[in-house]
Amino acid sequence: PWVYVLTDGVHIKIGVAKRPNQRLATLATGNAANLRMLGCFPGGFELEKELHSRFSKVRDNGEWLFTTPELLEYLNERIHDKFITVIDGKVQTFTKMLNVKLTLAD
């Protein structure tokens, strides 16, 4: 299974699914907020439980968490292709640039 991280633009949800994109589609059905997948990483229910325990002080409702610098720092370490931040109170993502060395041909 995968640990997935998604946002409604304000909160962050951490959960577990075999098919994270399918889970996102299920959660989005009937949800007034525009849910977006922030990323996934290998793990299962034990890791999910550990993360919910680690961030229990910022829990809003169920698996939904308030966004904090500590939570963003953790996610940015685990999700390698995106940088996650908050701008004007909204969760924003940016694609990380790969460190690629370019050489010019003669």
What can you tell me about this protein's structure?
This protein is an alpha+beta fold. The protein has 3 helices and 7 strands. It has helices spanning 20-28, 45-54, 69-78; strands at 2-7, 11-17, 36-42, 59-61, 64-66, 82-87, 90-95. A 5-stranded antiparallel beta sheet has the order 3-1-2-5-4. Strands 6-7 form a two-stranded antiparallel sheet. Strand 1 and strand 2 form a beta hairpin. The mean pLDDT is 87.
Distance between the termini: 48 Å
Class from helix and strand fractions = alpha+beta
Q: What's the helical proportion of residues? A: 25-40%
Number of helices: 3
Strand coverage percent: 35-45%
The largest beta-sheet arranges its strands as 3-1-2-5-4
Question: What spatial form do the alpha-carbon principal axes imply?
Answer: globular
Strands, count? 7
Average per-residue pLDDT, rounded, comes to 87
Radius of gyration: 15 Å
